[in-house]
Amino acid sequence: MEEADLLKERLQAITDKRRIQEDIAKKRRQIEEEKLKLQYIKKKALREQWLMDGLSQQSEEEQEAMRLQAQDEQQQSDQLQSNILRIEKEIEALETQELNISANEEVVLKRLKEVEKTSEDIIKELNAEFQPDVAHHVPSPLPDLPSLYPVAPAKTCPVYEPVSDEPKKESYTGRERGRWKRTKRRLQHN
């Protein structure tokens, strides 16, 4: 029973570990997406900054709109960076959890190997159970069974005897076939 419980526990650990690994992979993909967004926003901000520097004849309204857009892009950039850091911390926590599960799985595996019986152990146990104990052997109280039952003569089965000693030929020529038919008819009449 303990072996079955250990096997269930190990299977659960493997399942949990697999689920965590999938979560880690998913979070890493999210980080890559966030980094691509961040890279796009930074390139866009640099391009707009370059355009603003080239156009010094802008009105104050246009300059204010550009500054507001730059601030908005900076906020988006900061938000993306904080998302990346948060996801990286989540990945670290998941990796720690995975390590704990792996360590627990190792402990369960060691206990399972201690409890698990090999085929050789089972055979040895069965042989030990079925070996007669010579020191404590008590004769059977049953009487000699063959003397209780009358011995009847064995029935003999009829034996098939071939008609002739010659083996049967597989193929016959025309002359042999005719001879065989005549011999067969003679045997049937006798």
Share of helix, binned: over 70%
Cα-atom radius of gyration: 47 Å
The oligomeric status of these chains comes to: single chain
SSE ordering: HHHHH
Can you count the beta strands?
0
- The fraction of residues assigned to DSSP E strands is under 5%
The major pleated sheet works out as: none
Distance between the termini: 79 Å
Helices, by number, come to: 5
Q: For the residues shown, what is the average pLDDT?
A: 79
Specify the structural class.
mainly alpha
**Bulk shape:** elongated
Low-pLDDT parts are none
Describe the structure in your own words.
This protein is mainly alpha-helical. The chain has five helices and no strands. It has helices at residues 2-54, 60-115, 119-130, 145-148, 174-189. It is elongated. The model has no long low-confidence stretch (mean pLDDT 79).
Write a brief caption for the model:
This protein has 190 residues and is mostly helical.
Q: Helix and strand layout, with pairings?
A:
Layout: H1 2-54, H2 60-115, H3 119-130, H4 145-148, H5 174-189
Helix pairs in contact: 1-2
Question: What key attributes describe this structure?
Answer:
190 residues
